[in-house]
Amino acid sequence: MKLTLFAAAAALASTAAAFPIIGDSKSYAKGHDVTITCQTGGTSVSGNSIWDKTSDGCYVADYYVKTGSSGYVKPKCSSGGGGGSCSATKSNAASVDLIAEFEGFVAKVYIDATGHPTVGYGHLCTKSKCAEIGYPIPLCQANGKKLLATEMAVSSL
């Protein structure tokens, strides 16, 4: 009986009509018309790795958009990633603290497990003695968190 109910529930779930597309603050209902501005490659969804960028800046798997083609129908996007109302929110002190706790803090430059010079909360140094960070070494935790927050802001653009 339990297996029959599970199988019935699975069958109903697999035939559900709506596939909501959810970003930070945006979702589209099935049948909603979207304007595609460009397309890019991404994670494959049911064998289709094309992603469509909508006019409001959101990326939607092409699998869910009825373009009439399994190939590109618009020019390729100049750069990947989100934007518009679907972009990541700005980091706040709580998110910086969470990542800092996970990463752990090292005040002096050290060689990480992959052989890269690293300092603070996981900053990968690009210049000799991490001169690019703009803070004195050994790094204090307050400056380490400032550096981490700056890097988080850059990565969410």
UniProtKB/TrEMBL annotation:
Residues 1-18 form the signal peptide. SUPFAM superfamilies: Lysozyme-like. GO terms for molecular function: lysozyme activity. It holds the Pfam family Phage_lysozyme. One of its GO terms (biological process) is peptidoglycan catabolic process. Keywords: Antimicrobial, Bacteriolytic enzyme, Signal. InterPro entries: Glyco_hydro_24 (IPR002196), Lysozyme-like_dom_sf (IPR023346), Lysozyme_dom_sf (IPR023347). It comes from the Eukaryota. This is Ig-like domain-containing protein. It comes from Pseudogymnoascus destructans (strain ATCC MYA-4855 / 20631-21).
